[in-house]
C-alpha cells in the first residue's frame, strides 16, 4: 500500500458541460479527487501546490466545444480547468526546478497539479513582491499589455490612446504604460466605480462609463476631438465600430481580445471596416505566447501600481470567473487557492 | 477680343447629383463648356490635353456627399469629375513641364484641364509603351498593387495568397507579382470569362467565380486546405468574413478596397473579427498616395502583361464607370478621351 501513502485529497474545479451563450457558475463544479505528491521515478515532471489561479476572459473560448481546433485547446469535461497560476514546487524530477521553488505557468484549478513539462513554467525572481502579482502585472496580463502596447502599437510621445475594458487586468497596465510614454490616455469601463479608479488611481487623463453613454461615437468625439492614434482593443463589437469612425490616419489597433462578443451566440457585425482602408489603419492581433521568450526581460522592467480582486478558495472560483463577463470584478480577478 | 481667341469648346463629364446606393449613368452628364489653352502670365500652372482618364472603384466614394470630410474630396456638382489620367502638356508656366510633355496625374474628365499645381503630375518616361498603361500597370493601380503586395503584406516564397476582384486593375497585377515571388495564388472574380483569364493569361494557380459558389467558406477551404497567408482585400463584406475563417496564424491582409460595400446604403457587418486576435492577423489599410515618392523607382521595375478595357470617348465614360460596380469590365477600365 506504499502507493497510497503519498495520495492526498485534491479539491478541483471541473467543467460539467460545454457552454453556449453566457456561462453560469453551474457549468462548473467543485469536486474532490486525489493527487499524488511524488513524480514517477525517471520522469522530468513536477508536482506543484497551487497558490493562486487567474480568472481571464479568454477562458470563455475554452468552455466552448469547437468543431475546428481553436487557438487554445477546449477544456476537457470532468477535468480541472486549466489556466495560468502561481505555484510552489513540491516534487520534481526536472533538473531546473527544485522543491520549494516558486513558479508560474499553466496549471490546474485544483490544489495540486502534476506538470508533465515543467520547462513551460517561469521562475519567480521577485518573491518579495505579492505573489499574486504573478497572475497580473508580472504575469500573463502584464506581458500582454507590455507586448501589445510597445511591440504592436509602436507608441510615440503625444499619441492619443484609447483603452477599452480599461480597469481590467490588461487595460489598467496599458493606461499606465501609455502615460509613462507621454501619451494622452482615455479609458472606458462599465461602472462609475471603475471610471473613478481610472482617473484617481491609474492616472488616465479621462474616462467614461460606456453603459451610461447614449452614443459611443459622440463620447469618443468628446474625449478625442483630434481623433485616436492607438486603440487598445479588448472588447470588439459596437465599441470597435465607434472607434473606427474616430481613428486618425495611420492609427494602430492592437487586438488583444473582444470580450463583448464571447458570450453571444451570433457575434455582432462591424460595418465600417472601410475606415481601415481610408485611414490606412493597422489592426493587428497578438498573443502573449509569442512573447514568452522575452518574459524575464519584461519582469525586470515592469513596475507600477496594480489593483486586484482576489476570491478566497476554489469554492469561489466559478463565481469569480463568471463575474468577469458581467464586469463584477474591480481590477485583476484571481483566486487564492492556498495562503501559505 | 483677344481673350476669346484661345478659347475652345471643352466637352466634360459632370456629376449632376450626389449618389446614395448604386450609382447610375444618369447621375452624370456630358456637357460642353469652354477651356482656355493658355496659362495666365506669371502663373506656374499648366494646361493639359487629356488622352486617357481612368475608371477606378474608389471614385464611388467621391460621388457621395460626406458630412465629415472623406479621405478624398467629394466631387463638386456641375464640375468635371476628377481622377487619374494620361495627358499631354499644351501650355505651361512651370519650369519642370514643357509643351509636348507626356504626363499622368489627377486631371478632369474633360478634353482640356487647367492644372494649378503641375508638380503633382508624373512624367511619362516610357512613351514607347502604350500610353494607356499609365492609367494601369504603370500608373496608380500598378503602384497600388506593388506597394500593397510588397510593402504591406511582406510576402515570402511559398506563401498562400488569395486575391479578390482578381481580374481587375489591381488584382491581376497582385497575382502576377505573387507568382514572381514564388507564392501559390488563387483569385476570385465574378464571371467565368474572368476566371478563365486568371488561369490562362495571368498565371493564377486556381480561380473561382464567387457568384457561382454556394458557400464561400467551402470554396476557400477547397482552394486552400492549408489556409491563407496573404489576403489582398479588394471587396470586403461576406468575402472578408469567409477569408478570416480560413487565414493561417500570422497572416496578413493588405486592405486596398472594399468594392462590395461602396453602393450599399447600410454596409454589411463582419462578425468574425476575433480571428484577428486568435490567429494574430495583421489587417492594414494603405493608400497609393503614401507611395508616390517611390513612383519612378517602381516605373523602372514594373513589367508584365496587362489586360485593359478601353471605352472610346467621354460620351461612354459614365457607362464605363458604372460598369465597374456590376463587374462588366474585363481588366483595367479606362476611357480614351483623345487618340493622338
Structure description:
Two copies of one chain form a homodimer. Chain A has 340 residues and is α/β, with parallel strands linked by helices. The first copy, chain A, folds into two domains: 166 residues, Quinone Oxidoreductase, Chain A, domain 1, CATH 3.90.180.10; 150 residues, NAD(P)-binding Rossmann-like Domain (Rossmann fold). Helix content of chain A is 24%, strand content 27%. In chain A, strands 3, 4, 5, 6, 7, 14 and 15 form a seven-stranded mixed sheet that branches. Chain A has a six-stranded parallel sheet with strand order 10-9-8-11-12-13. A two-stranded antiparallel ribbon of chain A has the order 1-2. In chain A, strand 9, helix 5 and strand 10 form a beta-alpha-beta unit. In chain A, helix 3 packs across helix 4. At the A-B interface, helix 8 and strand 13 of A face helix 8 and strand 13 of B. Strand 13 of chain A pairs antiparallel with strand 13 of chain B.
Topology:
The structure is a homodimer of 340-residue chains.
Chain A: H1 2-5, E1 7-15, E2 28-36, E3 46-54, H2 59-62, E4 82-92, E5 102-108, E6 112-115, E7 122-123, H3 140-152, E8 160-163, H4 171-180, E9 184-189, H5 192-200, E10 206-209, H6 216-223, E11 228-232, H7 237-246, E12 247-255, H8 274-278, E13 282-285, H9 295-301, E14 308-312, H10 317-326, E15 332-336
Parallel strand pairs in A: 8-9, 8-11, 9-10, 11-12, 12-13, 14-15
Antiparallel strand pairs in A: 1-2, 3-4, 3-6, 3-15, 4-5, 5-7
Amino acid at each position: 500500500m506504499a502507493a497510497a501513502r503519498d495520495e492526498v485529497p485534491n479539491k478541483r474545479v471541473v467543467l460539467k458541460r460545454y457552454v453556449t451563450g453566457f456561462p453560469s457558475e453551474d457549468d462548473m463544479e467543485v469536486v474532490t479527487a486525489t493527487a499524488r505528491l511524488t513524480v514517477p521515478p525517471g520522469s522530468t515532471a513536477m508536482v506543484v501546490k497551487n497558490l493562486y489561479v487567474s480568472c481571464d476572459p479568454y477562458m470563455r473560448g475554452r468552455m466552448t466545444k469547437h468543431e475546428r481546433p481553436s487557438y487554445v485547446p477546449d477544456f476537457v469535461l470532468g477535468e480541472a480547468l486549466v489556466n495560468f497560476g502561481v505555484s510552489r514546487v513540491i516534487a520534481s524530477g526536472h533538473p531546473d526546478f527544485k522543491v520549494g521553488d516558486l513558479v508560474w505557468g499553466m496549471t490546474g484549478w485544483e490544489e495540486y497539479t502534476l506538470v508533465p513539462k515543467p520547462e513551460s513554467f517561469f521562475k519567480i525572481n521577485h518573491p518579495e513582491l505579492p505573489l499574486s502579482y504573478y497572475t497580473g502585472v508580472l504575469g500573463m496580463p502584464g506581458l500582454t499589455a507590455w507586448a501589445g502596447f510597445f511591440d504592436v502599437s509602436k507608441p510615440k510621445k503625444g499619441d492619443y490612446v484609447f483603452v477599452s475594458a480599461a480597469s481590467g487586468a490588461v487595460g489598467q497596465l496599458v493606461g499606465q504604460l501609455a502615460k509613462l510614454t507621454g501619451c494622452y490616455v482615455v479609458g472606458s469601463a462599465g461602472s462609475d466605480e471603475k471610471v473613478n479608479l481610472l482617473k484617481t488611481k491609474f492616472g488616465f487623463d479621462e474616462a467614461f462609463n460606456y453603459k451610461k453613454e447614449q452614443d459611443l461615437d459622440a463620447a469618443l468625439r468628446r474625449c478625442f476631438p483630434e481623433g485616436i492614434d492607438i486603440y487598445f482593443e479588448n472588447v470588439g463589437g459596437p465599441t470597435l465600430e465607434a472607434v473606427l469612425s474616430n481613428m486618425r490616419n495611420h492609427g494602430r489597433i492592437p487586438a488583444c481580445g473582444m470580450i463583448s462578443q464571447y458570450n453571444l451566440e451570433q457575434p455582432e457585425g462591424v460595418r465600417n471596416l472601410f475606415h481601415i482602408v481610408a485611414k490606412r489603419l493597422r489592426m493587428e492581433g497578438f498573443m502573449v505566447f509569442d512573447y514568452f521568450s522575452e518574459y524575464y526581460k519584461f519582469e525586470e522592467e515592469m513596475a507600477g501600481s496594480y489593483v486586484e480582486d482576489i476570491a478566497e478558495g476554489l469554492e469561489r472560483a466559478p463565481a469569480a470567473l463568471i463575474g468577469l463577463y458581467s464586469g463584477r470584478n474591480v481590477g485583476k480577478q484571481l483566486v487564492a487557492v492556498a495562503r501559505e
